[in-house]
Amino acid sequence: MHVDPHNGYLYWTLSDNIHYGLYRIDLAHLDDTFITYKQSQFILKDPSLTVFTIDYSNYRLYFPKSDGSNNTIISVSLDGDDEKDIRQDKVETSQFTNVHNIIAFNNSFYWTTGAVIYKEEYDGNMEKIYHNAFDGPIMYDDICVALIMFHPSVQPYPVPHNPAENIEAIFSDNKAKVIWNKPTLLGGTGLGAWQGWSYELQVEEVYSNKTTVRKSLNETHCALHELSPNTHYALQIRPYSKAGHGPWSGPFYGQTLKSVNRSSRYPFALWGTKNGLVKSDALGENIESLVHTMNIDKGLITGTIFKHSIFTLNLLSILI
After folding, report:
1. Confidence check: pLDDT of 167 > 60
2. Rounded CA gap, 44 and 125, in Å?
3. Please, what is the average pLDDT of the chain?
4. CB 181 within 8 A of CB 266
5. Alpha-carbon distance 211 to 176, whole Å?
6. Please, how many CA atoms are within 13 Å of residue 298, restricted to the half-sphere of its CB?
7. Which residues, 6+ apart, have CB-to-CB distance to 59 below 8 Å?
8. What local confidence, expressed as pLDDT, does residue 301 receive?
9. How far is CA 24 from CA 35, 38, 62, 148, in A?
10. Exposed, middle or buried by CB within 10 Å (0-12, 13-18, 19+), for 1?
11. How many CB atoms lie within 10 A of CB 281?
């Protein structure tokens, strides 16, 4: 059994006489509810498949195959397709028999039979791969049941390949609230794939080309302060992880309002909520209750009114 947070799956093998092979389930399905066997996806049927390892960066699964005529390593894609023999005629005296556990590192394999630990070494002159046992055999009656490689490349941080999406912002005279969606996942990855991105937000004054960048944003929203009134802005988002940066999104263009007299009653918005009618400023802050549902016999208020000193946008209805 292996967890693949990089691509969003839990993989495991079964070795009974009926359901033998490789299975997986999307990590997004593993919540507090009970998961049934039928919800899993059967991706590869092979009676010799008992142990395997995952190449997260290259989106491949590897497993040893030893069935009399073969003693090799098979590579398949994450969905079980595109099966390839990647050690055919390349190994001098292959030892892929009775493998209890296997790992991949730096284009080579390390594995144990329980009694012996092996590693691969490539001879460039002979163009052959040799299987060598580690010095210091396992003590009598001891069994090596697992190998673990501690290296960043064994389970690397993903790099975002797509930009953030659906950037939106609402402006006051000197502030803005910005929201966006996470990058879409690559085809073939599960909904439970790791998406703990951080974000950079680039804020550009369109006509002066003055640019600032906000970094280390860990949510898909933020507030901007100390903007200039009556100014056009272009906003762009870029996701990143410890492994690198993704692409910039397309720009979102917006304009701050003219300078607002704080003692003025404009601009404001009226909101219909389950508790009644409330009033706020243009950014949804400084909320004030105007009409409670108790005062209209528990009627339901829906919609909004945005009122500026020049125009009024009516989207308000009262359901009684």
Report:
1. yes
2. 36
3. 85
4. no
5. 16
6. 0
7. 7, 77, 78, 188
8. 62
9. 12, 11, 15, 21
10. exposed
11. 17
Q: Residue 121 is encoded by which pair of tokens? A: 């070494």
Report the pLDDT value the prediction gives residue 47, as an integer from 0 to 100.
83
Strand pairing class (117-123; 108-112): antiparallel
The set of residues, in sequence order, having a beta carbon less than 8 Å from that of 136 and lying 6+ positions away, is none
From CA 82, how far away is CA 198, in angstroms rounded?
34
3-class DSSP assignment, residue 308? coil
Q: Is 61 helix (H, G, I), strand (E, B) or coil?
A: strand
Is residue 245 pLDDT above 90, yes or no?
yes
As annotated, the residues of the chain forming the CATH 2.120.10.30 domain(s) are 2-133
Are 46 and 227 within 8 A, CB to CB?
no
Other beta carbons within 10 angstroms of residue 109's beta carbon come to 22
CATH 2.60.40.10-classified regions of the chain: 165-255
Q: Which CATH architecture has domain 165-255?
A: Sandwich (2.60)
Contact (CB, 8 A) for 201 and 237: yes
SS3 call for 107: coil
Under the banding of pLDDT at 50, 70 and 90, the label for residue 313 is very low
Fold of the domain spanning 2-133: Neuraminidase (2.120.10)
Q: What is the pLDDT of residue 126?
A: 86
The pTM of this model reads 0.79
Rounded-to-integer distance, Cα 2 and Cα 102, Å: 12
Instruction: State the pLDDT confidence band at 296, using cuts at 50, 70 and 90.
Output: low
Number of DSSP helices (H) and strands (E) in the chain, helices first: 0, 26
166 — pLDDT class (breaks 50, 70, 90): very high
Whether 305 shows a pLDDT value over 70: the answer reads no
